[in-house]
Amino acid sequence: MPQDARLERLLDFLRRSPTPWHATANMAERLEAEGYRRLDETRPWRLTPGEKVYVTRNESSIIAMQLPTGGLSALRMIGAHTDSPGLRLKPHAAQTAAGWLQLGVEVYGGALLAPWFDRDLGLAGRVHVRHPDGRLEGLLLHVDRAVAIIPSLAIHLDREANNGRAINAQTEMAPVLLQGGGNADLERLLRDWLAAEHGLEEVEVIDFELAFHDMQPPARVGVEGELIASARLDNLLSCFIGLEALLESDGTQGALLVANDHEEVGSASACGAQGPFLGDVLRRVNAQLGEGSEEDYIRLIQASRMISCDNAHALHPNFRDKHDAAHGPALNGGPVIKVNANQRYATNSATAALFRELCREADVPVQTFVTRADMGCGSTIGPITATELGVPTLDVGVPQWAMHSIRETAGSQDVAHLARVLTAFVNRAELP
Fold this sequence. Notes:
The protein is an alpha/beta fold. It is built from ten helices and 20 strands. A hairpin with a 2-residue loop joins strand 5 and strand 6 (100-108).
């Protein structure tokens, strides 16, 4: 497959997915275009061997399944997450200062705050409205133009700005929205934006989950286009690559892609990796295509394998001392196996050996990341999914710079690298 076409699809997906709800909707749209049938968790399921189906929860998490044509004996699972750190509106967001309408924000996840200043910001998320007939409806909103900014304080008024001064998210990061605006203007603006996007004129805004997003579009960067720069690479890049692998597979094996919300805040939710979403779906599939017993379910889980995909820290040319000297992944150097003895990553030698073999078969280079012994280590949905299900799991990811910034950077060649390996995984007839 021409890689330029794949990268264009990636950039389009990133641009159209400013929130987990939009990412899930865009993944669902592409799955349906490829013949996947949507399932409703509140309705009875009728599954057929060889069928392709998907299901969402909270409109922000998604599971897509390629059901085997034969017996349900093992699943090749790919995991990712749809959420990214950022700034989300508080319920009573409107506030005024110095003649400006500003919006109070809450920091979602471990966001790198400094890059949010002086950026053109749009607004997106989910809004629930009441129609004139009393009907409630949830709608996606994507204000795809610059409507706000968080202005920096001039260096002349803050001589310590370049000396590592702390940022107070409560008092210093309320975006500026409208000159002369008041508390009533936010609801008016929301109605205007809903009218423009959905053609709804007479609705009342009841509640919302909204977040700011960077208006600078995703781009290829570098003299040779070696880099991809975008918001939300962590972890929409893995969502995209996992979806590509599933859709490019030959369809012969049982396979599953799960993209959970709320990873950046601990995964403890009904649709997060610590919640029951994946287990609920697998039990329903096993009840119809397997023998349906608890023993049969456990056998299915133990015969399956999960590759948890979440980006890895690439070696930074300006901060090489932040990596262990023997474990500094390079951009465009291939996918990274993530290892942590304290189980912050789920990788063990058996699951790592499977991935190394897949890379060998796909002719893809592979790298390894272990954090420095004197630094803390992040985590992923991998250990959580392994704990909840018991499925043998490993953690891998595309190397990237500036993780949790408003704009992150990855290698353009690594998109194809990981896609090839994951496709080989989904197509693999035997799992060790």
